[in-house]
Amino acid sequence: MAWQFTLKLGFLLAFGGLWIGCGGKDAEPRTRDVVFQEIQSLPTLYLTGNTRKQVIAAGDRGNFVDDKTDEICWRVMECGNPDCPGRGADGKSLQFVTPNPAMYVKPDGTIDYDQKKSKEEEKMAGGACPECLKKRNLKTESNAIRNKYAKWVKPHVLPESAKRKKELEAELAATSD
Fold first, then answer.
1. Quick one: which H or E segment has residue 112?
2. To 10 degrees, the CA torsion angle through 61, 117, 110, 95?
3. In this structure, what DSSP letter does residue 128 have?
4. Are strands 54-58 and 64-65 parallel, antiparallel or unpaired?
5. Is 113 helix (H, G, I), strand (E, B) or coil?
6. Phi, psi of 107 (to 5 degrees)
7. Sheet containing 54-58, strands listed edge to edge, beginning at the edge strand earlier in sequence
8. Nearest to 154 by CA among 132, 123, 128
9. Angle between helices 159-174 and 32-40 (to 10 degrees)
10. What does the angle CA 138 – CA 139 – CA 144 come to, to the nearest 5 degrees?
11. Are 78 and 93 in contact, with CB atoms under 8 Å apart?
12. What CA–CA distance (Å, rounded) separates 97 from 154?
């Protein structure tokens, strides 16, 4: 019996040594695709269409239906225009969503697109800051001005996602496929 105990102990020590030895080595660097996918899927802030309920979900989801409200979730955008009339007294950028009136939730809970309403979306300058739109004249403004306003609108990034994105971008810069 003593020899069985010694054999088991020897096996455990040998296996444990292998396990500890393997754990000390650096893991293989992740591929650029894996890191990029993690960047795309970082936690992102969405708002539901009507109730404006905040939902945090992976950024690569696109629009989706909130399972609690049955409303479409829209990614939160923010306006970086330094003269935006919606900028807060604290200097923070205006955060908003621009729901597409052509998109709706079908009875089965999936999102669909109404072609007839898509013409309405084309007229609305979709994605533009709603407060900046109030002072703009879309009929007379040049393409250069329109592009300037478009560049000010960017997806809102949660602080923890911004921090993680910087780490991942550093990892991406250090990786080579």
1. strand 111-113
2. 40
3. S
4. unpaired
5. strand
6. -55, -25
7. 54-58, 43-48, 72-75, 64-65
8. 128
9. 170
10. 60
11. yes
12. 11
What is the rounded distance in angstroms from the CA atom of residue 69 to the CA atom of residue 19? 48
Tracing tokens 């621009």 back to the chain, one arrives at: 98
Report whether 35 contacts 172 (CB < 8 A). yes
Q: Which two tokens stand for residue 43?
A: 């936690």
98 token code pair: 């621009």
Residue type for position 30:
R
Going by C-alpha positions, the residue among 70, 64, 61 that lies closest to residue 43 is: 61
Spatial separation of the C-alpha atoms in residues 38 and 32, rounded to whole Å: 10
Q: If you search the block for the tokens 């200097």, which residue do you land on?
A: 91
Q: Is 89 exposed, middle or buried (0-12, 13-18, 19+ CB in 10 A)?
A: exposed
How far apart (Å, rounded) are the C-alpha atoms in residues 38 and 172? 11
Measured from the Cβ of residue 131, the count of other Cβ atoms closer than 10 Å reads: 15
The pLDDT profile of the chain, 177 residues, written as one tens digit per residue, is: 443 433 344 444 444 444 444 544 567 788 999 999 999 999 999 999 889 999 999 999 999 999 999 999 999 999 999 999 999 899 899 999 988 889 999 999 999 999 887 765 555 566 799 999 999 998 999 999 999 999 999 999 999 999 999 999 999 888 765
